[in-house]
Every structure is written in structure tokens, then in C-alpha cells.
Amino acid sequence: MRGSIFESTMQVRPDDIDMNQHVHASRYQDYVLAARYDQRARCYSMPMEEFLRRRLGWVVHTAHLEYKRPLFMGDSFRLRTHIAEFFDDAVRVNFEILRDHGGKLSCSGWFRYTLVSSATGRAHAIPSDIKEKYSV
Question: Domain limits of the chain?
Fold first, then answer.
């Protein structure tokens, strides 16, 4: 199953830069998390605040990133995501980060996010209404 592709636009900030004068590897994970936060509200009509109200949250179970080309200070980029697969209590989200200048791929990969109950700290089955909203 492949869900709709959603896109967020971002820009490299000074604190993203490492001693090699390009974006530090760890920041790419932050970019994906920020894009998913944006897209939950804007694209799925299910903002993070709704999950919090239900005492649910998403945690990163696995992250796989493949770095292709570095991003540099001031670069703007598009971050595309789509839900590639549903599990009982998790989703696999594929992503691509593309530089605005030239549209070249900077990084791609996937995250497996597990839905957890904040009451128990344990994995929680994805409710059918959430699965429906995420199935666009």
C-alpha cells in the first residue's frame, strides 16, 4: 500500500551546520520529524494535539537514512513523505529530501513509527479512525 505523497518546504539554519560546513547527519532525522508534524495537521487533518488529547504518541522504532548529497547553509529543500505500510501498531513512512536548487536528491529512507499509549508507555493498536485518516 502506498499513501499520498505530501511535501513540506524547509530551509537549512545556521545551527544545522557541522564542522564540515554542511548539515550534520542527525539533523536529517529532525527534518523528517518536523515535516511529519506539519503534515499531520495540514495533510491528514489529524494534528499531533489530537493524539495527545487521546493520550497517544508516535515514537521512532527504526530509522533508515541514505545520504546522497549534502545540504549547505541557506539551502532550501522539499521533504516528501508517504505512508508505505501499515502494521497493527505502527506505520512505515518513506521520505525523500530534495534540494530546491536543481531538485537533486539529498537524502532518502524510511522510518517505522510505533503508536504508544502515554498511560502505559506500551505499543497501542492504531484506532480505525486514525488508520482511515492516514490512508489518504
Answer: 6-134
